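Task: sequence in, structure out. Protein: DUF7452 domain-containing protein.
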Amino acid sequence: MASRPLAMALALTWTCTEASGNVLTFPGPGACSASFNNCMQAAAVNDTIEIATDSPISGPLLSTTKALTIRPAPGFRPTFAEGVTLRLSVQAGQGGTIRVEGLRFQRGSLVVDSFAPVQVDLLNNHIESIQDSSYSAGIWIIMPGQVAAGTGAMHVDISGNTIQVDGGANSSGIFISRSPSPEEYPYQLRVTDNRIIARGSSQENGSGLGRTGIVASDDGGIDNPLRIERNQILEDPDNGDGSARFCSGIRVNANQQAATTARIANNLMVLKPSCSSLSSGIWLNGHPDNLVSAHILNNTIVAAQNGIRLGSTGWPNSPQFHFQVLIANNLIRDAPGFGVVVEPLAADSMVSNQNNAWFQVAGYQNFSPAPGSITSDPQSLPPRHRLSSTSPLRETGDAAVYTSGLTNLAAEALDADGLRRTKSSQIDIGAFEFGDATYRIDFPTSNPSVLYLLDVAGLNGFAQAMLHLTRSDGRNLDGYVGVPNPLSTYYEVGSQRWHVRSEDGNVLPPGGGLNLWAATPGSTADQYFVGLNSLTEPNAALLPDAWASLPSDYLFLVAPTRGVGNVAFVDTHPVAARQVNGQWHLSNTDGVGIEIGNAFVVYAQAPGHNAYVHTVSDANRLSGTVSRLDHPLLNGLPCAGVHVGVNGSGLMPTRDVSAHYDSNTGFWQLHLEAIGPMLFNGNRYNILIDPRPSDDACRVPLLTDGFEGN
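Result:
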């Protein structure tokens, strides 16, 4: 068996191509007027079908033998009726891209089987899988293996889906099966940012291994990198006794004579221990002739029978397995079996571990935790086991595993929420990085005032907090109440409390609300005071080096503040960051000059799935004062943590807006609230979405509305 360095094995890349073809609309003219099945049959390879109806689409089996893109038409949230399975197949010798995104399945399944290497993208779907389905998984991908030579590469991306699993003895949220092929071909798999939720009762776990969140069977191929990252495998939120949980979290089956590489990182698993002695949070199921190279990083595994299992059982003659595995920064707690099980390994194997936390773990099999491992109470908080402010796991992980040494793979240093980890020299242990938080605020409906006391446990006594305000519906989600006042924050030293202040002398509107973003102080989240030497032109103040040299695609949230002691000067105009001669500056976006002594909170981050730029256009401008946000992290989520900042690179003037949820359409909207110029096409806004409050404060509605914060 050939071996190769682990670093080379894990130098993962990802290549995506967009499908090209015609766009059909369902319901629409011709074949698309009769049924969805007819519409699929009428489409050609690489065509796109946009679904322009909210009426449930019936089945039970909707099937096509060609690669298509299926997605909602703008403004629609399509649903497949109860029991429908959507199946897309690609025959030998064909090619193309299968892309299914933004669809809802009422107790159904999404199935892809391919006899040819194609690109498969299954993104942002909501699936309720059923026990008696022919396919015992919410998403089922089958690659039978009869592939001709020289037909290209296989890329599979399963990301951003929410899947409920009702039961079945060995059912799964996501199941990928790849069989041996007479011809080897490049193959890449990415399973990221999915929420997989158990439903039902303990008896639905069945016998044997029971339900498993994600199963990836890698049965052959050349240098097959598997990326399984930022997934959350969760218990039934409506069954609080813990019986309705998955038995196992993630299983990778490496069953043939080919090398398997995997990165399993930043996943959360809350599991059921009393299923099988083999049930595990993460199981790398080896083959005697297969080299398995893996990095297991920053996972949180709760109540698995065994935390991590390496190797297989039941082989005749007790063969040895070949593993090169790094286990780092993981939190494994409440495991009644073993923290780690390692089956007999060949002499060329290496299993290293560092910076892990083990709590209430019964023992280990052929494994010894590294010196310095944490065994004290991690102080992680159910249901997601995020770290408390006093957790010993804060800033005790090793950030270098993402950038150097054995890993050497330019990994994304994002936690299970998709938020940045590298805010300081060290990172936290477990799936979630402690830090930035969202608070929803409601102004009182009686005795209005120009001041509002922020009596919030997470902020009281925390003078270093970096606060940004977005006018919104607040905590009670009570509909639209305009807040046109210019606002600022300040920290009162005597009471050790933060306050919100109306800067125009008018009282804060009764019943108005805010989304308050509290960023963790750091190099790109800090206070900034405009100094005499920072004014490079009448309306441009050069930011300090920590911000000035950031890349041009970074997103900024900027908020005026009076600071600690209520002593700083406040800018009451809309303010944004913009680049001048390649460096970031602050400017007022209504043309009024910025002044020396003004103080601001400045927060910056790279764009990502939770941070993007919204540009006002005819497609989303509903009126002169309203623009609709159409984004999978927001649609159907009335309690999403939405934060909005003016973007300085758009059409000027650009004014401050608020963010409100329209329950009639299921979309968030930006609103102008003060008298003045209207919204114009080309105005730009930075949208930051904090998935944490969506996850905890809106847990049950998300399970029916199709997305949970990622």
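The first strand starts at residue 23 and ends at 26.
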